[in-house]
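TEACHING EXERCISE
Course module: macromolecular assemblies
Task: Read the component lines below, then compare them to the predicted structure of the full complex.
Student: A.B.
Group: 4
Components provided:
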Amino acid sequence: MLDVAGLRKVYEGQGHRVEAIADLTFRVGTGEFACLVGPSGCGKTTLLRCLAGLLAPTAGMVRVDGVPVAGPPPELAVVFQEYGRSLFPWLRVRENVELPLRAKGLPKARRQSIVDDALAAVGLADAGRAYPWQLSGGMQQRVAIARAVGYHPRVLLMDEPFAAVDAQTRADLEDLIRDVWRRLSVTLLFVTHDIDEAVYLGQRVIVLSAAPSTVDADLAVDLPDERDQLSTRADPRFTDLRTQVWSRIKRTTALEASP
Amino acid sequence: MIVRRTVALLGLPAVLVAAWWVASAGSTDFYRPPLARILAAFRDTWFGRRLLDDVAPSLARLAVGYTVALCAGIALGVAIGASPRLRALTEPVLEFLRAIPPPVLVPVVILVAGIGDLMKVLVIVSGCLWPVLLNTVEGVRAIDPTLADTARVYHIGGTLRLRRLVLRAASPQIVTGARQALSIGIILMVISEMFAASSGLGFTVVQFQRSFAIPEMWSGVLLLGLLGVLLSLGFRAVEARVLGWYHGLRAVARGSR
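Instructor-supplied answer key:
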């Protein structure tokens, strides 16, 4: 569903050049939930922008459903890290969720029912009339998720969406995302720097090396499909997986620091 | 709360008017008549034919000139703000044009547009356009990149993007420009009527001065001041509607810090 082949991105500035991504190749199958982790500054956001068609890669190719990405592909949605800046502050919560549906040209009655469903799915059925900035951070990110859900994408990209919320809210949102993923049967790529989060959420964890990044490891998460904040995180297999990912990342950062 | 606000709003003006009244009460100076006489002249002068003959044409020209400047300024500002190339091309010229004091254009505009309403409207436009235009350019330029990315990802384009993203995101700056333009517009309304005019507020005040109708002249100045206050109150009411979200957002941001 999501194919990345030989992706490379170099930023050319005046007199200096920064290689953010060296050479990335991986694919995420239809309906799969993959998490992407890497040390901070490893070009995760650059990668995500390339995948979303917001940034042209220097070399290589991204394909969504077999079609090469040249601009934002249809049926692809993104949930950005900065929820406060990705919601339109002059639109009410409902209108924020509705806007992409308007752009799709859906009739009003259809839009209304989709918005109702999407807000209910994220537990914000009563917040439709509020402005985003009247809500807490976690609730704002729920609005952004509702907007993505209502859009009904086949591919959903999430860029460290829970980095700025507190731990309890984060746990709730993680379970919400698992729930949304199962209900929509969407292909989901979740970028995070939090190893526990990656292992807890994904069916697969792709570990990136430090910049210029390459795929350092690609681990299947063989935990049961039903996950629970308490029992899953206490599962010896969970601990085992997170140790594996940890040591991978430790090694790449050590390699980077040594020369 | 309402009482305190009213006191805050009207307190100082009331004190000033009272001070003026008392200080000028026994005045026999021809050029500084007692306020009582000015107010009497105000009533006799403005609540009659002049309201239609002089006040209405002035306000109509202001309304037309201001509206044209607002529309043209926003349209050009959006175009220039959205295109870095256009911006680089036009910026020096815009700064030059903005630096010309509009009253100086009156003689030039008379040559081109004659001495009728068109001239007066053009003078108002030539002054009001720049603050709107330049502020709109800044507002459009400063659109949050994450919001722009969001619009791209969800394929929000064309007029939907213009109405829901560009104009709304730039609206705080556009309103700032519009506020500056309004006060410039009132000044130019008066100035344009001081040259080759036969009606209007500026014309009438100058006419009173030349015919030594001093209390009437003062009453014209008072009227202009009051019009300015009324227009700015109206502007604030519109602003509260258009920028409700912005003031709310700012209040939240201040509270969380």
